[in-house]
Each structure stands twice: as structure tokens, then as C-alpha cells.
Amino acid sequence: MANPSTKKRVLSGMRSTGKLHLGNYVGALENWVRMQDEYECFFFIADWHALTTDYADTSRLKENSVDVLLDWLAAGLDPAKCVMFIQSHIPAHAELHLLLSMITPLGWLERVPTYKEQKENIKEKDLGTYGFLGYPVLQSADILIYKADVVPVGEDQVAHVELTREIARRFNSLYVPNRETFVTAVKIAIGQPPAVFPEPVALLTPAPRLPGTDGRKMSKSYGNAVMLTDPETVVRQKLKTMVTDPARVRRTDRGDPDVCPVGDLHKIFSTKETMAKVYEGCRSAGIGCIECKGWVADTVVKILNPMQERRKKYEDNPGLAWDILEAGSARAREVAGATMQEVRESMGLDYSSNYAGEKDSQQ
User: Fold this and answer.
1) 246 in the same domain as 302
2) Can you tell me the distance from the alpha carbon of 91 to that of 350, in angstroms, rounded to the nearest whole number?
């Protein structure tokens, strides 16, 4: 299905990992909320992708998927402005993944940087599976089936979008020239190469590194995350224990916010006025670390409170959230289904129309 909107189409997703944290918000979700006013946005809960590393235990998969949706709605994603759906409710993703896997060279997958990185870093799980090696093809199917123009990613995911472009190019070169349609003939006549899949563009999104309470990148697996659902008392307690400038041992020692994880949080969340107080107070030892942490906690709580109020509305009425997901999935199936019809026609797999034509000719 061609994109009827004048807006460019965006596709992005998050794995079904459960409740989200501040790093997820700053790294992606905050940007999605802005993008829904500028683009035609499709956002999906990637429950199949969650299986690439967590296939051994699926007991919390549905619960985790719902928690992701609730946090999306809490952050400000609006079903009137974007399409939110769950990957496994659109079987066409799996069909396109299968077909694209037939034409994707192994070498393309083995050179994806995150493949080797994750195999080296996730030692406690057996990642020697076909699904783990091939998950970038599933990502490509996720993107191409909606003919996305733009894919918002961090730098570590640019290689995945480039792989998607290569797969789209290969599919178009293999199958599209064989399409004997009026539209194809017109495109060829005007010198425009026909294509089923447009080549999506990676949109690098500003995603500052958000430190966790131990100074490392914020992550649930590190146990250093501030969750979007944490109540105020928990937020303040977590930030109170956060590591600071290692050179500032005593209250009278001068510090440097530029080498302090708490200073990094201030740069992301605090106003210019608060930042000025932080630099002046820390560098002169005029304030202690506890006071500085309290200021950043004040700002974080102000951000989280309205989110948690919105989330409670859906928690109190879980059917409403699920209805949003079902409506989005129905819209996604419509778009994906139209794309798959084009794919089958291009590959000569649209047998029903062939048989219908033969039957008509015999009558």
C-alpha cells in the first residue's frame, strides 16, 4: 500500500522487556512523542524480537508487552496521532521475514556489528540460534512491510538500517522488473526504476548517554535504573545513593560537574538556572552532593508525576489500553496486507489470481 499521507512514514519499536526507565524515555520515547506530530508514525511492541535472547522463558511476555504499552501512553503517545500495535498480531511480518531470509546472504548478517558484540557480552545465554543470527532480517521485514521512509535510531543501529536498504535493493532488483503491470510500465517509460520497497533512511536521534545510579549506562540489567513508574520516595532514594565526582571525598572538597554522573543528569533534565547553581556551588564546595542530588530529583519527579497520572488511568481500565493496541494492530494489518500482496505478485506467488485467470480462459 502506497503511503497516502503527505507526511513521511516512520517505523520504530521496542522489545517486550516490561516497564521502561528514564534511559528509554530520553533515548527514544521522548523523541517519538515529538515525531507523532510531524510524521505518520507506526510504533510496535516487538514481542517476537524479545524471543531472540529470551526464548527460554516466555511466562511474562504478555505482561511485559502491556507494561511497555502503558509506559508509551503515559509518556504521551496518542492513538489519534500514531499507530501502536504488537508485532505478533501481524502474521505478515513473519511471512515477509521468511521470504527475505531466502535472498539475504549469510555474510551480510555475520558482519552486523551488534551480532558479535552481543554474543561476546551475553555469555549467560545460548545465542547460537538461527533466530539470533537472523533477527536483523526480521527487523528489515518490520520496516519494509510498512514502506517506512524514516527509521529513528541511535548510532549503534545505523548498520541495521543500512542492511534493510541492501535487502530492499536486492529484492527490487530480483523481482520487480518481472512485474507486468501498468504502473511498472509507466515507471519504466519515464525512467523511474520500479520498486516494491523504498529504501528507508536512518534518522539519527539525539540520545544523550543517561547514567544510572552507579555511573554506568542506565539499564535494568545493571540494577541502576530509575523506572518511569517509581514513586517519588523511590526516585529520591535511588538518586541519593548515586555516585558522584570521585575526587570529592569530603563536603569541603571542590568538585567538577563535568566528570560527575549527577552533573550529567542535570545537563539532561535541569534548567540553565539550576545548572548555573550546580557549577557555582559544586566547584566552590558551596553545596554538598546531597543538595545537588535533591535538585535533580526535583526535576525528575516533575517529569514523572504527570506520566504516572496518565498511566494510572489505563491501569485502572486495562481494557482501554488493550483496545488501543487491537485498533492499532488492525490498521497495521491493513497496511502490511497490501504490501504482502505486492510482494507475492512480484515473486510469482499470487497463485489465486493465476488460477482465476486460467478458469476464466477455460469458460
Assistant:
1) yes
2) 17
